[in-house]
Amino acid sequence: MGDVRLNISPARRHFKQRIGQVNHFLITTLIGLDGVKSKKFTLPEEFSTSWNPRNVERSAERSIRFILDASLSWVVDNLDSYFVEASRKPSIIGSKELNEGYTKADRSVNKRFGLFYHEARRTTNIDKYAALVALAIQWRNNTVHYGANNELDDEYRSLLVQHKDYYMGEFRHLDVEEMLKSFDSKDGHPTFKEVTSMINAIHKYVECVDEHLLKSLDLEQFKKDLLDKHCSMSKQTKRKINNLTKERKEVYLKTLYRQYGLEVEDAVEEKD
Fold it and tell me: Which pLDDT band holds residue 268 (cuts at 50, 70, 90)?
């Protein structure tokens, strides 16, 4: 078998599949609500008895707020799914300290986020993205959890202010000061631009974390754990693999590796 590489982890592939189309869904929904707001719509007959708001424009505005809050919540929950998948066998976490910290973090997405951030900043330029992700987590908590009044850590607030020109240029004129002012207010909800910026930052954050973890990955151990996981799904599988010829086993493993996102080069035959 030729060289085997892992450029994108199964955890990140899973994450991208889950939220890859979220911006498209969000924009499509908001276009529809804009039509409601401007009263340029036709009410389907099946909804005529259950939808009759006193103020159509106000109803559309409240629905837009709900969709933006819900989208942010959905993406943050899927960020947490990346942490979960990264830690599951075959795990891409090679650091003993990170593994121990992850266990102690229990179910807190904020603690998990901080652990992976401080690990990945050793080799990647993750700071600018992590600051927006930190804000996304706290904002999501405040809009979803009843009575929550979470604050943004000074570390991330300082990073947001420090890089405000970067966000203005690279995140479609994102105004950090206005965003923080809205977050700090009692009834502050993120705007469309702010939500899409935080979604973009979460993508970049996961990319940086994945890149860092794969640099120190023990690929042989990963392949072994992958095979163990695969065999544990069926008692007959391990026996089947062991009974294959060397050539057939190699083909089987190539297919298995590729299913989990590994790149496998075909071996070059030596000529006499």
Answer: low
Q: pTM for the complete prediction?
A: 0.90
Higher pLDDT, 59 or 236: 59
Per residue in 179-199, pLDDT (tens digit) is: 999 999 977 889 999 999 999
- Whether 28 has a pLDDT exceeding 90, the answer reads yes
Residues 225-240: tens digit of each pLDDT:
999 988 887 778 888 8
Q: Integer distance in angstroms from the first to the last C-alpha of the chain?
A: 19
Host H or E run for residue 5: strand 4-5
Tell the burial category of 38 from Cβ atoms under 10 Å away from its Cβ (0-12, 13-18, 19+): exposed
- Write the CB contacts of 177 (distance below 8 Å, at least 6 apart in sequence): 161, 164
DSSP conformation letters of 208-265: HHHHHHHHT--HHHHHHHHHHHHHHT-HHHHHHHHTS-HHHHHHHHHHHHHHTT-EEP
Joined tokens for residue 245: 């010829």
Tokens of 9: 């982890």
> Is 2 a residue whose pLDDT tops 80?
no
Extract the tokens encoding 195.
């939500």
Question: How wide is the angle at C-alpha 70 spanned by C-alphas 65 and 76, nearest 5°?
Answer: 130
| Cβ 108 vs Cβ 140: under 8 Å | no
Copy the structure tokens of residue 175. 């105004």
* Alpha-carbon span 105 to 110, nearest angstrom: 9
Q: Compute the C-alpha angle 154/140/30, nearest 5°.
A: 125
**Distance between CA 119 and CA 102 in Å, rounded?**
11
